[in-house]
Specification:
The complex is a heterodimer. By secondary structure, chain A is an alpha+beta fold. In chain A, strands 1, 2, 3, 4, 5 and 6 form a 6-stranded antiparallel beta sheet that branches. The N and C termini of chain A lie far apart (33 Å). By secondary structure, chain B is α/β, with parallel strands linked by helices. In chain B, strands 1-2-3-4-5-6 form a 6-stranded mixed beta sheet, with helices on one face. In chain B, strand 2 and strand 3 form a beta hairpin. Classes of the chains: A alpha+beta, B alpha/beta.
């Protein structure tokens, strides 16, 4: 058990973590935390375009988690089948970041790794072209969104998307995605 | 055709399509969990309405503070649908954005380029005031 909450508090303060959540994510969670996050950033006097970018990346990360987390819970009141994971919003070296972690099936992980590896090589204009081309195409098989989430994040990010992962067992890994704004 | 009206939620916009006045409003934020499901009744309504052809210009007023990537795809589908029915009616799209919202302007510019046949106007609104 976490015995010293003060230590955690100090650590979060030191690392400039402004938000941290772990648990099942429903659309209500995204709406509620999204609104809180915006309010907090407004109070701290952040530029509206920075707030928009953080919010946008937060939403894409959460919706990925809701769609792809391999760890799920049934909850009728919140709308059925919720993905479990955690996310952190913080500030480092002059940039906000949104990190999101969840368990994921290994085959899905390789698809995401390949996609992020490709995105990391593209510049802003190439990302824009890819985004607009992909937007005109039908949604990819098995994608609940438009298949645009990672490209959208890459376009709004100030640095290439970072991913790392830990193998849990032969079918599951823990994926963590970090996007700097 | 009956009026189509969908009330806003925290993550979906207010939608009001009024065939009598010829005004079509989409206003708010749009990041539903399932964008395709949210837009289905909107497309069904337009699929029935647009082929009828209208004597007066149809004006689409769209003011979205934020929308997620899957809604962006649905919006492009909406503009493509409107483009395909330009032979039936005159259609104007007003993409309304706040001057301080760079993202909304950029998104409007990209939609304008991707729906080149549509009369797509980028309309800058006053700075957000305390009275909204």
């Amino acid at each position: 058990m976490l015995t010293d909450l003060y230590e955690l508090y100090k650590q979060m303060l030191n690392e400039k973590i402004i938000f941290c959540f772990s648990g099942p994510v429903s659309q209500h969670v995204v709406e509620g935390i999204g609104a809180t996050l915006k309010l907090k950033m407004e109070i701290d006097d952040n530029d509206i375009n920075t707030i928009q970018r953080v919010f946008s990346i937060f939403v894409e990360q959460m919706q990925n988690l809701m769609n792809y987390s391999a760890e799920r819970v049934s909850q009728e009141r919140e709308g059925g089948d919720l993905g479990i994971g955690l996310f952190v919003v913080g500030f480092k070296d002059g940039h906000f970041y949104v990190r999101c972690g969840n368990k994921i099936k290994n085959d899905k992980l390789s698809v995401i790794r390949a996609q992020v590896d490709e995105l990391r090589t593209l510049n802003a204009d190439e990302l824009k072209t890819l985004y607009r081309r992909r937007r005109k195409e039908p949604s990819p098989e098995g994608s609940k969104g438009g298949g645009l989430g990672f490209i959208e994040m890459a376009r709004k990010a100030s640095q290439p998307i970072e991913i790392d992962y830990t193998t849990v067992d032969e079918t599951i890994s823990f994926l963590s995605v970090t996007v700097y704004i | 055709m009956d009026i189509l009206c969908i009330q806003a939620t925290k993550s979906t916009p207010y939608v009001c399509f009024d065939p009598t006045s010829g005004t079509f409003t989409i206003k708010g934020e749009c990041y539903p969990e399932n964008a395709a499901a949210f837009f289905t009744p909107i497309f069904a309504w337009l699929d029935a309405f647009l082929p009828l052809g209208q004597p007066k210009t149809l004006v689409f007023d769209i003011e979205l503070l934020y929308f997620n990537s899957s809604s962006s795809k649905a919006l492009l589908n909406l503009f493509s649908l409107l483009e395909r029915h330009l032979g039936c009616s005159d259609i104007n799209v007003n993409w309304r954005y706040h001057a301080d919202n760079e993202t909304a302007l950029e998104c409007g510019e990209e939609f304008k380029e991707d729906a080149p046949n549509l009369a797509f106007n980028l309309v800058e609104l006053e700075q957000t005031g305390s009275n909204g």
